[in-house]
TrEMBL record, chains A, B, C, D:
One of its GO terms (biological process) is inositol catabolic process. This is 5-dehydro-2-deoxygluconokinase. PANTHER family: 5-DEHYDRO-2-DEOXYGLUCONOKINASE, HEXOKINASE FAMILY MEMBER. It catalyses: 5-dehydro-2-deoxy-D-gluconate + ATP = 6-phospho-5-dehydro-2-deoxy-D-gluconate + ADP + H(+). It comes from the Bacteria. It holds the Pfam family PfkB. Pathway: Polyol metabolism; myo-inositol degradation into acetyl-CoA; acetyl-CoA from myo-inositol: step 5/7. The gene is iolC. Keywords: ATP-binding, Kinase, Nucleotide-binding, Transferase. One of its GO terms (molecular function) is ATP binding. Catalyzes the phosphorylation of 5-dehydro-2-deoxy-D-gluconate (2-deoxy-5-keto-D-gluconate or DKG) to 6-phospho-5-dehydro-2-deoxy-D-gluconate (DKGP). Its EC number is 2.7.1.92. Belongs to the carbohydrate kinase PfkB family.
Length: 340, 340, 340, 340
């Protein structure tokens, strides 16, 4: 599939470990209206790597999480939820400095007009320290996922680099979900610097065209050419680079020079949140099953359709039979709706 | 009533202006359980001076607010609510620095075991600047209310001192609701310093025994004697000092040497939040009607009973006939419950 | 002299205690050139209240200092110097947080073109805490001097208010040398707020017209009228307000409605630094001798002439006979030079 | 010499460019005593990369500097000095945020007991931004030197990574002088993280055993073995790793498996400051002349002897004939003294 074959070490006990953000989504119960008119909210576990980890666990993999939660009711809600999902939380530490849990209030004005009101000041997830990253969890895992938000501030930033160092040392495959969110970052230059340093060490890189543009802001790709982007990372560690072009779909580039596009499916869209996370979970699950890239992408697309048709992100992550069933029903034409 | 008679200038167009905290309460819908098991929340306007101002407006007074809200959906929710309550919001400015709205998640484990999870990092209400305090609002008001939380940080702290300066210049009566909350403050010494500087300028001071202890931490009243506390403030501007002793009730000291205790009423307590704010609104309303101190205290107590029997603080603030009716029904023995 | 007579309690053992800034002056040895061409510097103790305290001690008074120094060679240099000058340093604490000593590199391009390059980040003097202000030093002193720079930041700001509280409690006379320096302060509004709160409690206030303008920036004296300025403070605690008008000389206003101008003396000016500090020391010394205001001002002016004729500030503070001698020689016409 | 031959591109117009710290040394004029007894100081340009760049220029190379200075007399002193030394300062920008020039007061109690009092709060050199690093200067240079101190804080840290990126793109040789100084850094974990990320990209790495220990604190070399240290970097970009063992001398490891020790010379030591900088300048100069590693090390050692025999660091950097002469005189036994 790729010259630099991405192979998962079957002898390792854990399939998947994610490092990074754990937070709370507060989803407006009254949808299709501005948040000013919202009066009640429902609480879910959130954060891109948390969602992906929950997704992987639902798909039947053995998973663990490395992160930090606040020493309060919100923090305990998060840890409790992960444990009930079967995720190993021995790598989730508790902040003792008075940090709070990150919040994301979601506003759904219409299926295509969604926004988020973030609370990211003094959040516990960015307090994870390098010394708190448990080497044995990474040593025992086939696949490590990192997420860009965790690079936004010290000491979480150094914890991510420490996790990368352990993964390299123990030959875990590393996936990088760029997940760039402008708040929390101080400057574009800072953002680009650490995204690039991290990406150099990763085998699978997944992001939007705009996220890759941000990483290339100080030169090298003025025409925003996907092939130049992918080629840069193939010179380092990467074997697969997935670049998402919004409505125009995603393309997976591989270091053998090939590129792949996957079929997309119709969906009854409630909101767009969570699409990327469920896609990543589905795609990585496919790769770990030994499927080829198009099949893995297709599985990711179907998983995304299921999530965006529901009210939550984490809580809507599908099990494998649900995804297979969704694909089948789409192929039979049983599901109509906007194409995702 | 007092030697330093607290008289309201009848020629002024506005009855009441409050300065300080505007925030959001997110009250757990599932009560009598820990917040870890809560999944939905209902949103209300909150913050002690906001609650008192809403209370005064419900009681029929002409009111205004001086404060600052975030430039987001939460901020617009607050301003919209105040306006619908008939409060003049021309003194409410909008932050442009990316500050957020303060949040208070309430947890009601039982009527007597309530706690609050606060989000107070980078909040808009503490960004109010001295230059944004509208002198004409204070010049036109009979009574200014300040609240201790607004003293916790610059520039809000200086805005409060500016409001006090305008009130002195235009001979408004000044009430100080101590409302001390340890988060946000850097040190006890800092807290005591600014509480004392502000209290020197106020005519009516309302607080718990513990709040006055905090103000006296660097000497002067080792036996925690109410009379010493009150006497200190009578040497400055105060004519009335109300010291709350929890279950043992409140005592109002006046600078003629008298002290007053008010009757308390039974209540079916849902939660204890909001008791102090509704008490303050009721008491100040009574004073402004020309009632004597015991009658004003009684009215405040009854208003507090109504609020603690309901799910919210701001939204439960009663109208005057409701309070009179409550007192009457208590006198007739129609209301049983825990005494407030 | 004033209606609110400023009388020093003769029974108190200490004449004078100053609270505030202790720092290092590094004076260019090569003068009359830009600092870019300077290669060697000589080190002196500096800081306005330190200079005044050294001046008072040289004049023969019993003095003490309340402040904080860095835990390094510079800090020990300062404490050692004060002790050798006979100043009680039991109120000088040592920072343990890694703060540094404030530095002032002076540049003397010409006698009338002097500037200062300040190092004021993370300085020890602004780390003095309210709890470190020794009540017994203030209780035992006839006169307390505070200086505006110490109000610039917490916790030093609260330490000054604590010192004022002790001075009020123990009936010490309080002098306020405004000494406003824009660096360190966050905003003009913050500056004005705390200067005003402090000045309300002081008996003697000394500053430039521009410093008083800064304090009146939020209204009350649009025509910058000295009489309005002085009258405001006479409503609070002040009996003497000295307003300096640069080349046009200083005027002392007293709360009996009088105003006084003092004779000025010629001087061979080397640099202008230190003029205000030596003036303050001389003037306050005169008052404490029971001299009338014009005599005290004259003594201050002569002391200032001596300091500006030399290379340093602190180290050049004169003894009383030197000042008397200077006045005498001026009267005899033995000293020519620019008028100070 | 090494498998990964370190070859300098002769077609490039510039020999050497350094990026990083520019500051001021204030050297006590009264030596062999504690700084508390010092009263005068002499000012020199300082900062490890500045010293090395001055050294390279004195040795006859074409040099440039990339850094940032304060907008004050100290900043202009630095830029002026560099220019007079023939260093291209087109890459030296001027801070506009009110940052100050870093200061290092040196205390020489005895030739072997020297210490430094640093002023590093809010310093201009750490404000250099990635966007201010001039690509053309690095593109045109044979050798780029980075220094660890510049990694201590954003945005300077990202500027260094940007410089490394340009150097890689334009195939400049990269030397890393570890120059670890604990102040300024927030935590050991942060320090190790960025030192390692930078070192991965460098061809020549020079540091003390303790500096390499700090980089290996999270595992990999518990016995502090030089060969393990060197081998790690040979897996990345390095061809030469020099590890300094204090009195036991320095060892240069090369990626062909060899190691080299150089002769040391006697010196009349005044102070130890500046030894490492002059050594680095001499060694890199030797390499650029095409000398073998032992000869280059010897030249570095002799340059260091000259600097530690004098009062300053930067100002004492020798010209090439001086170094050759020093070596010759040592060989003839004309120079006695402590061995350096």
């Amino acid at each position: 599939m790729t010259n630099k074959p991405i192979s998962f070490d079957a002898s390792k006990p854990l399939d998947f470990v994610a490092v990074g953000r754990l937070c709370i989504d507060l989803n407006a119960n009254e949808i299709n209206r501005p948040m000013e008119e919202t009066v009640t909210f429902t609480q879910y576990v959130g954060g891109s790597p948390a969602n992906i980890c929950i997704g992987m666990s639902r798909l039947g993999l053995k998973t663990a999480f490395i992160g930090k939660v606040a020493d309060d009711q919100m923090g305990r809600f998060i840890t409790g939820y992960l444990e009930r999902e079967g995720i190993d939380t021995s790598g989730v530490t508790v902040d003792r400095t008075g940090a709070v849990t990150g919040l994301a209030f979601t506003e759904i004005k219409s299926p295509t007009d969604c926004s988020i009101l973030m609370y990211r000041d003094n959040v516990a997830d960015l307090k994870l320290e390098a010394g708190e990253v448990r080497e044995e969890l990474i040593a025992g895992a086939k696949l490590l996922l990192i997420s860009g938000t965790a690079l936004a501030k010290s000491p979480s930033r150094e914890a991510v680099f420490q996790a990368l160092d352990y993964a390299k040392r123990h030959r875990a495959v590393i996936a990088f979900d760029l997940d760039y969110r402008p708040y929390t970052w101080t400057s574009d230059e800072e953002t680009a610097a650490y995204y690039n340093l991290a990406a150099e060490k990763c085998h699978i890189i997944i992001g939007t065209r705009e996220e890759f543009d941000m990483m290339e802001r100080l030169g090298g790709n003025p025409t925003r050419d996907d092939h130049i982007t992918a080629a840069k990372w193939f010179q380092h560690s990467a074997g697969i680079v997935i670049i998402k072009h919004g409505k125009d779909g995603s393309i997976a580039y591989t270091d053998d020079g090939a590129s792949h596009r996957a079929r997309s499916f119709p969906a009854k869209v409630v909101k767009t949140f969570g699409a990327g996370d469920s896609y990543a979970a589905g795609f990585l699950y496919g790769l770990m099953q030994g499927w080829d890239i198009p099949a893995s992408m297709e599985f990711g697309s179907a998983a995304a359709c299921i999530v965006i048709s529901s009210h939550s992100c984490s809580d809507a992550m599908p099990k494998a039979p649900q995804v297979h069933d969704y694909i089948e029903r789409c192929l039979k034409g049983e599901i109509a709706g906007t194409s995702s």
